[in-house]
Amino acid sequence: MEIVLGLKYIAVALLIGLGALGTAIGFGTLGGKFLESAARQPELAPQLQVKMFIVAGLIDAIAMIGVGIAMVLLFVM
After folding, report:
1. Residue 34 maps to which CATH number?
2. Sign of the C-alpha dihedral, residues 41, 46, 52, 56?
3. pLDDT by residue (tens digit) across 6-32?
4. Those residues with Cβ within 8 angstroms of residue 59's Cβ, 6 or more apart along the chain or in another chain
5. 67 is catalytic
6. Domain count of the fold of the chain
7. Contact 60, 23 (CB under 8 A)
8. Number of other CB atoms surrounding residue 4 within 10 Å
9. pTM of this structure
10. What does the radius of gyration of the chain's CA atoms come to, in whole angstroms?
């Protein structure tokens, strides 16, 4: 039983850790591409900013779903 419990803790840690890593990489790429596109066409910066924040919310939602699944694994099962 201890092995199953230990593996569950490892699974939760990997789920949260890799979700955070993926989110950080996604935000870094998103911010870099936004700055590149705003530097190339400054007149489109407000439109691009709105789209950037929408995508940022979706990227963050993926991480929060992963945290939710991890909490279910940790406390319910």
Report:
1. 1.20.20.10
2. positive
3. 999 999 999 999 999 999 999 999 999
4. 23, 26, 27, 30
5. no
6. 1
7. yes
8. 7
9. 0.78
10. 18
